[in-house]
Each structure stands twice: as C-alpha cells, then as structure tokens.
Design brief:
CATH superfamily of the largest domain: Glycoside hydrolase 38, N terminal domain
Largest sheet: 12 strands, antiparallel
Distance between the termini: 86 Å
Structural class: alpha+beta
Number of strands: 53
CATH topology of the largest domain: 7-stranded beta/alpha barrel
Number of helices: 17
Strand content: 25-35%
Low-confidence stretches: none
Number of domains: 6
Radius of gyration: 31 Å
Helix content: 10-25%
Strand order of the largest sheet: 23-24-25-32-33-34-35-44-41-40-37-38
Length: 983
C-alpha cells in the first residue's frame, strides 16, 4: 500500500514550464523598493547562490503555454527560505526547503512549503514575473545541500489524485493504529483499502471517482472514542536561536503570509500566533500584510495569543521585567486589535517561576499553556490540566497538551497521543492540539489541513474541532474546580545550564533591570518623568526582547550574542546620559580619582543603604538616606600595602586561607563557631560535556581541576582589608579580589577573568557547618524553599536550581547567604552552597563564554533565619544601581515613604495612560504584613489596579494610606497627582 501511495504522490504534479532565474546576493536584507538597484546575475538549476545567512533577491521570468487548460503553479525549492511578493510589495507566500533539519528524524513530517498559483502573476499573453526575497538558511539555521537551487518550475496539479493520495495515506495510518485499538475497524479498513487499491491499479473508466467513493465511505467508519480535541494552527517562532534576530523579522513575514493564504484556501482553518514583538516587526516592515492580519483577527479567524511582549524566560528575567512583558504585550493587542487576551502562552520556556501564577492573574489573565514540562528527563509531570498555585496562593488554570509537542503534524499518531496520554481523562475528555511548523517558523501547510479534515471522528480517533484556543480554555474553565492543584514552581528537569550559559548577557540583563529601576525612580523624584516616556518604553522593549527564552538563557548562536552585547552597551550608555541630564550632574566612573566630598550618590531603595566606590587608590562608602541623595555618612580610606595574604579579621569574622588561595576556615566570633566544615571558595574547573542548555547529572564525577594560584597580594584601605589572588588554568587567567569591611558579616568577592577554557564549568562552593534539609532561594517578588536532600528521584533531579539575588542555608538559629550580581545557577546539597560562575560550551554558540567576564558575589554570615537577618534587603543593596555623581544640586524629597521594611517596591514609574504615578509594592518575606504608605506629592487620589494598570479601585483621597499584604502579595498602586493650578 505504501508503494501505491508514493506512486500516486508522484502523479499529482506535471511540469509544464521553466523560469529564467536572476539573482542579486547581499550580506544583509534589502527592502523590496530597493531591490532593482542591485546587480543581478543569471543562475541555473543546481547552482549554489550564497553562504549561511546570505540574503538574495531573485527575479523569475517565464511564459505559460496557452494550450495548458489546468491552473499553473510555481513549485520552488532553493534549499533556503524565501518570500514571494506581489507587484505592490506585499508578501503573499513563504517558501521553505524540504531538506530542512526541522523534526530532526522526520517524525514531524515534511516542513517544506513549495507551491503557489501563478494566476495573479501572469499577464494576458502568458508572461510570468515573480520577485522573491530569499535567506540562505533552512528553518534551523543550516545550509542544506550546499544551498543549491533545486526546483524552480511551473507545474499543473491534479487535485483529484491529490485528494485520493491524502485519503489513502490517512486510511493506511488509521488501519495500522487499529491493530490494537479496534480490531473490527482494522478489518473494515483492510478490506476497503484492498478494494480501493484494486480500482487504482486497474485504471479502468472513472477509476479516481470510484476509488474516492470507497475511501469516502471508509472515512465514515465510526469511532468508539469519547474524546474531543480542539486544534489550532500554530507556529511557535523563536525570535533568535540558530539564526540572528534580523532573520526572525523575515521568518515572521513568511509565516504570517502562509497563514493568510491557508485561510483563503480553507474556510475552516484557524491560526494563532503569540509575541506582540513579532507583530510589531511585521507592522513596521510589511504594513500591507499587517492590514490583512488585522482583518482576519476582526473576523475571528486569527487568534492573537499570549500576554507577554515575547515568550520570555521566566527563571532569569527579573520581577519587574516579567510585569513589563505583560504590560506592553497585553496593551499592544488591545491597541492594535481591540482584543483583551486571557491566556499566557509559553510553549517552549525552560521552567516557570513559582510566582508566575500571581503575575499572570494580576495581569488580568485566566489561563496558562505550555508544553515544556513534558520534556522532564527524570520524572513525568503528573498533570495535563491543573490549577497552578503560586507562592502567594494565587491560582490560574493551566493546560499542557498531552502530545508534548507544539509542532504537531496533526497525524494519527500524534492525535492519538493527545487522547491516550491525557492524565485527567477520568475528570474530562477534552485536550488541545497545536499543529504546524514552528521554532524556525512557516506554520501549518495544506497537508496539515488535509489530514485534520479526514481525522475528525473515524475509528479510532477523537472528535476534532479546529477553533481558537480561547474557546477550549473557556469550556474547561467552567469546570476547573474538578482538576487537581499543583503548588509552587514548574521546575523543568532539563536545560539546567541555561542559568549560567552566556554569562555576559546575564550580566547586562541584571544591570539593565537595575539601572532602569533607578532611572525611573529618579525621573519621578525630579519631576522629569514625562520627558523620556517614549524613549524609556523603547529601551524597555529592547531589554524584553533579549529576555526571549533562547537569548537570555544562553542557547543561541554566537552572532546573536555579539549583536545583543553591542546593543546592551549602547543602552547602558544612554541610561547613564539620561540620568546625568535629569540630575544635572556628571556620572563618575570607578576609575576616576576624585575626593568623596565632591560626590553624591543616589539611593533608590526605600531603606537606608550603602554604596561602595573603589578606585585605584581609595575605598569610599556612602551611606544614604532612603530614596535620597542625602548622605548619612561618608567614609574614605587610602590604599596601602597589607601584610598578610593568609588571614583576614574584623570584629565579627576571622578568615584563614590555604596556600592554594581557598578559604581554610571562617570563624563567626559572635557564636564562636566555625562557619566552614571544609575548604571554601575553591575555584574548581569541571569538565562540561553538555551543550549550552544542559548540565550532565554526572559532571561531578568527570575530571576536574583546581585553578592554580600564581600569587597573592594584600592591601588595606584603613580598616578595610583586601586580598587579590591571581589564578591560571591553561590559557585562562583570573583575578579574584576578596574584601572584608570593619564590623561586617559579609565577605565580598569580585572576579575579572579572561576565560579561554572551552567545554568547562567554573564553580565555587562554600561547605557549611549549618545543617538544613531545605534552602531558600530568591525569586521574583519573593522566595521559595527547595530541598537539599537526595532522598528520591524528584529531589535528585534538582541538582541545579535558579536563584536571583541570593540563596540562603540556615537552621533557624544561624546560617549563611550567598549574594550574586549576575549569576543564577545554584547547587545546594549536602549543606554546601555551590555557585556556577562560567559555563563554556561550543554549541550552539561556538567559543561560548570564551573571553572577558566580570562578576561579584558575597558570603553573608548571619544569626537567625533569612528573615531575621534581612537577607533580601541586604542582597538588594548589593545589587542595586546607585549612581555616583558630581553635582551641586539635590534631587529633592523622597517621592514616598514606607514604615515597614518587609514591604518594598519593584518600580516607581509614570502610568501608561496620562501622567499619574505607578508604585508597585510587595511583601518580600512570606508573612502577613501591614504598612503605612505616605506619598510626598500632592495627590487627588490613590487607587489599586492590576499589574497592567487596569480596573482602578479607589483606596484614599488622602496622601497617606494603610495597606495589608498577604505573604508575597504584590500590589500595584496608582497615584493620581493633583493637576497644576487646581487647589
């Protein structure tokens, strides 16, 4: 039967003509209106035309024989991606080569998009002229078959044979599926297919119509399954991964054009796509295409999906960044399409923070969809439909399509998986199916629709409905109380290396998040917030783009990082320039030698905080009032040579170092107890056999080396002690600076390195005498506990976990926390805090993480638990950007005051609508708390809104209010300023 089916497939097309091919190849894309100014040359079938990521405009001309009665189509495969334009410069069709690496082993079907009718491109005398914009890459960023031009021809298509081909192909798959599922149906299919095959082989009379009559009857074979599948055409599109960001602009246009053409051809086709950033690119570059999308959205045929600006990483992205993803994403859809989305759509993100349910719910969304947790490498996630409860108690309804795939080929095998694998089948019988070609884009093809039309209900299949996903979620939300509850983070037992890979991007991401918070607060404090509103939105959106789940986690190619690091530096400098302008000041770098009495520091925290400035010759500490540039005190000391490279001591701690530079012991003088039970801060280089995503669970058993200490130097800045250690490992050099301030319980470590050791991980560890079966990790808007034991498979699978500003190990009476300024990968097992500093691999980015890095971390030894020791507050001080300025002007009074340090804020900004203020407050320690909030501005009212600044509820007409918080609750407060001239 397969041979017969394959023969029929070959009989669908008949070649009826050829094209003359001319092309102009460029390094970067050239817009449609400038294409004719390029220099073109002739190409022939078999020619290779470019290198990886080359761009090319191709001009195809030909003539259709007037004697041909069938419609003529273009068939194209140039071993690349291409976009066909109409005469007005509007994209009409995206093409993809069939040799693409998509699907890896072909289990997801042929990704190729080959055909387009030529009627709209043919003159009255049969002349055909086409313009194609091509990119030399397949869906996954490869050059296949040396980039040869393989097929460029005119064909006619026998649509009756095509229909028969899809019937037979589908029925053959149904027959095979019924061997175990339904023996009676198997016999029916077997007999019927033999009958159809006999008719086809005979070629007698109206054999195609006769065979189609048989197959049509077979497709009515009744199923005994009691299941319903909601299917939606989809194209999860990575905004960078194995290709640069600029290629995603083009992939978006190809994918969206394809979806629009399918809507023309199939009236029952529905399509959905997420990521407003992608829509904005299409709007800017292809306004004609964008208008067609808007029409289909208005008709209900096109579903805009997901609330986030991009499908962002939710492990590493900061708290306010996640809110801004929602804010800009949701508002874009409302402004552009008049649609208020209700679901968060993150099919491919590498794990989900424990506070996401609150962020989702307080952004006005009701549902959550992912695939990724089905990728667990150790334990199967227990649910497909469930109520996800966050660390604050918020719940949202979640569904994970049981296929475990967002690129469903919509064939018998995958649709049966959706039905049979569903873990809540005893509670309900409905699941979601996402069909189409994603990751590299392209979306659904006609083949997907042809299969789905035939698979709606024949044995052994479920009933199938192609519809927007919101309808599926709406149906299940009515019975969501029936489904189980899952509490806490959705930890992905895979891709643990993404907490560390591409450390420079993670450094700049943290830096951008901190600097934007400070800048926005200063803008409010100085009354200049209206002056830079649009520019700050633009900066934020670019930062959010780089939080896409294949950029920030470190899983893209080298070009992606070289380009975004260049942009980060430009954004960084611009933030500095705006800050200097609004403060009427000059920002001072750490390299400058300048007296502290000429300097001021702005503290954007609502608590008193200290900032340190270390130049070549001085150590300065500025202790500042809350939300102020007014100093409490300033201390400065001059650098002097020290005497001892093997010991540090102050009133709180006594440290001893080994000859190799590691810490031999730390004595906590207040308790008289040793903090360390073994060597600490030993810089260990592990063999890394994994790619950028993953860490081998056996990496600790692989060969490892200590970095070799070359020399140590000792210095003092008055009572501040400093040891500088110089290390080497192969071609890698590293300078570690260790500092201990007077009366401090904190040991600060700073690293500058030129890392040249590929396929390695650099880690540090602090084995503690504190014993606890749980550790506490900082996450967005709060913290969560994870076990430190390895009692079962689930605990053993969490051998690397994500933390933000800090992680803490304590027994309730004493403990230690590790602060970090840009590192996220922790291993806290066996009472040891272990931190991943560098992970250098060769895939996907060649020479990944080789080069210069800087980072800082700090070990804070404390009494009590992490709350008693104010760990979060101190780690926030360690991370916050406090600009050092040379200025004679004061920034004025603090914009607000809080009387409870357990309540802090993540942003103070201008509202999106108008010039009111938005203050986002949250309870940081997981306790019921109250606070008094005083606004130091003239107000007309104080309101609470959701996170995207909707649905205001009046709290007070006064400038002071009392607020009550649940554990880890986030409140968004809108402050309506008194209008000028109004008393």
């Amino acid at each position: 039967m397969k041979n017969l089916i394959n023969k029929l497939k070959k009989q669908i097309n008949t070649k009826v003509g050829s094209f003359h091919i001319e092309g102009a190849v460029t390094e970067e894309p050239v817009p449609f209106e400038k294409r004719e100014a390029l220099t073109f040359k002739e190409y022939k079938i078999g020619d290779s035309w470019g290198e990886l990521f080359s761009c090319g405009w191709f001009h195809l001309t030909g003539k259709i024989d007037p004697s041909i009665s069938y419609p003529v189509s273009l068939k194209l495969d140039m071993n690349c991606e291409a976009l066909l334009y109409n005469a007005y410069g509007v994209p009409v069709k995206g093409f993809t080569n069939g040799s693409s690496a998509f699907g890896f082993m072909g289990h997801l079907g042929d990704p190729g998009k080959y055909y387009y009718p030529l009627s709209d491109f043919t003159s009255s005398n049969g002349d055909v002229e086409l313009w194609l914009d091509a990119g030399m890459n397949d869906l996954f960023g490869n050059v296949k078959k040396k980039g040869r031009i393989e097929i460029v021809e005119m064909v006619t298509r026998d649509m009756t044979i095509r229909e028969l081909y899809y019937d037979l192909n589908t029925l053959h798959s149904l027959k095979l599926a019924c061997i175990r599922e339904d023996r009676q149906a198997y016999r029916i299919y077997s007999r019927g297919l033999r009958k159809a095959a006999g008719i086809i082989r005979s070629r007698k009379g109206s054999w195609t119509a006769d065979a189609l009559a048989v197959t049509a009857e077979l497709l009515k074979t009744e199923s005994r399954a009691h299941h319903e599948i909601s299917s939606i055409g989809h194209a999860h599109l990575d905004l960078a991964w194995l290709w640069p960001v600029r290629e995603s602009y083009r992939k978006g246009a190809r994918t969206f054009a394809n979806a629009l053409r399918l809507m023309d051809d199939y009236e029952d086709f529905y399509f959905g796509a997420s990521q407003p950033q992608l829509y904005e690119w299409v709007k800017d570059q292809h306004p004609g295409l964008y208008e067609q999308i808007k029409e289909r959205v208005a008709q209900g045929r096109w579903e805009v999906q997901g609330g986030m600006w991009v499908e962002a990483d939710t492990n590493i992205s900061g708290e306010e960044a996640l809110v801004r993803q929602m804010l800009y994403g949701i508002r874009f859809y409302e402004k552009e399409f008049g649609i208020r989305v209700k679901s968060l759509w993150l099919p491919d993100v590498f794990g989900y923070s424990g506070n996401m349910p609150q962020i989702i719910k307080k952004s006005g969304l009701d549902y959550f969809m992912t695939i990724k947790i089905s990728w667990n490498d150790t334990n199967k996630f227990p649910h497909h439909s469930f109520n996800w409860e966050g660390i604050d108690g918020s719940r949202i309804f979640a569904h994970m399509p049981p296929e475990g795939e967002y690129n469903s080929p919509a064939n018998v095998y995958y649709l049966l998986k959706s039905m049979k694998n569903y873990r809540e089948k005893q509670l309900d019988n409905r699941t979601l199916n996402l069909f189409g070609v994603g990751d590299g884009g392209g979306g659904p093809a006609p083949s997907h629709m042809e299969r789905l039309r035939r698979l709606n209900g024949p044995a052994p299949m479920a009933k199938l409905r192609i519809e927007p996903s919101w309808k599926f979620f709406e149906k299940l939300s009515g019975i969501k109380e029936k489904f189980p509850v899952f509490k806490g983070e959705l930890y992905l037992e895979k891709h643990r290396g993404t907490y560390t890979s591409q450390g420079r991007v993670k450094y700049y991401n943290r830096r951008m998040e901190q600097k934007l918070k400070t800048l926005e607060t200063v803008l409010i404090q100085t009354g200049r917030f209206g002056d830079f509103k649009e520019e700050l939105q633009t900066i934020w959106k670019e930062v959010l783009l780089y939080q896409f789940h294949d950029i920030l986690p470190g899983s893209s190619i080298k070009r992606v990082y070289s380009e975004c690091l260049t942009r980060y530096k430009i954004l960084d400098e611009r933030i500095d320039a705006i800050t200097a302008e609004i403060c009427n000041a000059r920002l001072v770098s750490s390299e400058e030698e300048i007296s502290p009495d000429r300097l001021t520091v702005y503290n954007p925290l609502p608590v008193q905080a200290a900032s340190r400035r270390v130049s070549e010759s001085e150590y300065q500490i500025f202790t500042m009032e809350p939300l102020s540039d007014i100093p409490v005190n300033i201390k400065s000391w001059t650098k002097e040579p020290g005497k001892d490279v093997r010991m540090m001591e102050n009133s709180q701690l006594k440290l001893r170092f080994k000859k190799d530079g590691s810490i031999a012991s730390i004595l906590d003088k207040s308790t008289g107890k040793q903090v360390h039970r073994a060597t600490g801060n030993r810089l260990t280089v592990y063999t890394d056999i994994a790619n950028a995503w993953d860490i081998s669970r056996h990496y600790r058993l692989l060969p490892k080396r200590k970095m070799r200490l070359l020399r140590s130097e000792s210095f003092t800045y008055g009572p501040v002690q400093e040891i500088v250690q110089h290390y080497r490992h192969g071609k890698s050099s590293l300078v570690l600076t260790i500092r201990l301030e007077p009366d401090s319980q904190r040991i600060d470590f700073g690293i500058r390195t030129d890392w040249q050791s590929s396929r390695t991980m650099l880690r540090t560890a602090f084995p503690l005498t504190v014993k606890s079966e749980t550790a506490v990790y900082d996450i967005q808007f709060g913290s969560l506990e994870r076990v430190t034991t390895n009692k079962n498979k689930r605990e053993r699978a969490q051998y690397e976990a994500c933390g933000h500003n800090w992680a803490d190990l304590n027994d309730g009476t004493r403990g230690a926390a590790l602060f970090t300024d840009c590192k996220y990968g922790f291993r806290i097992k066996n009472n040891t805090i272990d931190l991943n500093l560098i992970k250098s691999t060769n895939h996907p980015a060649k020479e990944g993480d080789l080069g210069e890095h800087q980072m800082a971390y700090s070990l804070y030894i404390h009494r009590g638990d992490h709350i008693d020791a104010r760990v979060d507050e101190k780690a926030m001080e360690f991370n916050t950007w406090m600009p050092v300025m040379e200025s004679e002007d004061s920034l004025g009074a603090a914009p607000f005051e809080l009387d409870n340090s357990n309540i802090t804020y993540s942003t103070l900004k201008e509202s999106e609508d108008g010039n009111d203020l938005i203050l986002r407050l949250y309870e940081r320690n997981g306790r019921n708390e109250s606070c008094r909030l005083k606004i130091n501005r003239s107000t007309d009212g104080i309101y609470e809104t959701n996170m995207v600044e909707e649905d205001p509820v009046e709290l007070s007409r006064e400038d002071t209010i009392s607020l009550n918080f649940r554990p880890f609750e986030v409140k968004t407060i809108k402050i309506e300023l008194k209008k000028k001239g109004v008393k």
